[in-house]
């Protein structure tokens, strides 16, 4: 009886050490925009929130966030946020409706660019994507650091789709600036765009002329609900940089400042060469010399095993 109890204790402890104390991955959120971005984070249903669910990131700032194993959820950027006279916080794009900087379990109001993650999914791989299914508000780039896998590469939408947005999808602020671009589903609510009702299968729901505008600007991002094949990426044992407005100039600087690299990165497939984006071919920055060995994954296991071994030794006394 005591043995079973200890065995359970041992498993629980090991589990706790891996999932609770030591992170499974770190996310480094970087703001390269010329303006403040207020990132929002929503964990998937049934998954605990991370240490923050929303914060301000000034131009040039970055913040590291640890995620436990098997975490799943999304990151997005909120723009043009402010507090009204009653102290209620809201944003022009990406607003989560909480009235505070923390999103506290609320998601983003579309249209919003999303970076979506499922850590330690099938075969222990992390699955991630950048999605325009809910529309677009700010350029986002996800660069895995130190992971492995056949398609463990950067993804994102680094083109300015607010400028390139079809006029009937465009969201313009009261002062005349293009601040977001709706998806066709959001703008027209038709089943053929939303892939629901009669169009709820991959065979029935095809790309539309609207989703093709997104796809041709951002070939690696999800442009509609069944765009999985070209838009889902996988890594084992990676950490992730999530960059808002990854301008080519800024990412060159960042490669030395914060080792924002990605040596396997091929930026030319992130953008469409036929579209004009200043210096975009250089967006991947310098080859990374980031030593993954010292990052969270490598540390989690020796740490957990050391304590597990100690517990095992303890067991021998009973
Ligand atoms: C790039 O854009 C052009 C023109 O918009 C389009 O015809 C082409 O299919 C796009 N390429 C990719 C890879 O999406
Ligand atoms: C990446 O690999 C996964 C798993 O093999 C596959 O489902 C997905 O389509 C691949 N993505 C790309 C963009 O090639
Ligand atoms: C980026 O660099 C180019 C040339 O090096 C320069 O003309 C441009 O103004 C820079 N853009 C920003 C946003 O710093
Ligand atoms: C990057 O990708 C493009 C198109 O997918 C390919 O033509 C090019 O050779 C690749 N470059 C490198 C350095 O892998």
From TrEMBL:
Pfam families: Thaumatin. Disulfide bonds join 33-245, 81-91, 96-103, 152-235, 157-218, 165-181, 185-194, 195-205. Residues 1-23 form the signal peptide. The keyword Disulfide bond applies. Keywords: Disulfide bond, Signal. CDD domains: TLP-PA (cd09218). InterPro entries: Osmotin/thaumatin-like_sf, Thaumatin, Thaumatin_CS. It comes from the Eukaryota. This is Thaumatin-like protein. It comes from Olea europaea subsp. europaea.
